[in-house]
Input
Amino acid sequence: MIKHLARLRLLTLLGGLLLACACSASPEAPAFTEGEQYVTLPAPHQRLSPEGKVEVVEVFSYGCIHCAHFAASAEELRKSLPKGVVFKLLPAPFNDAWMPFARAYYAASQLGVVDRTHLAMFKAKFEDHYPINTLDELADFYARQGVDRDKFLRIATSDAATAQMKKDFDLLQKWQIDGTPTIVVDGKYRSAQVKTLDELVKLTHWLVDRELAGK
Output
């Protein structure tokens, strides 16, 4: 009788181990859910540029305090992306107050100073509380960063900057973006209802890995 019970216990233990192995061998549940933390955009998918194996775009504004809070994390995200994955910035001119910031980014980009002024802009506006809202005030900021003020204003107010802003706004509408910061991966996936900025970083890595696996 004791031997019989021992055999039953052994079979039960083995059955439990097999069940545990079966459970561990099953695919892990997705870390993020379609329709919640991200959405798949309708085809045909449109990227910001053809550069790179996979493209990550942060839609932002220098007038957005949430973008200011995300800026340092976004920079770390850019540095941590796999080789061949490119990180891009796209300014969102969602309202009249944000249009000067979009124009400022276009000018800074053309002048090749974004890398050294991007984080400094957020710090000056939201930490140091400089009055940076109008194009003249933005020109003053870039002048303090060693940029030619007149050249900055000439580029920021040019017809080319206006055309670029319109083109980018059309893309933002195609991507169905109505808030910042938002991440778009390969023109295919867009971040949605994330709860924290840290979650936005993790979501971006997850979408990048998913896109790389499919290429």
About this structure: The chain is about 55% helix and 10% strand. Residues 59 and 90 are 5 Å apart (CA to CA). The helical segments are 2-25, 65-80, 99-111, 114-127, 135-144, 149-156, 159-174, 197-214.
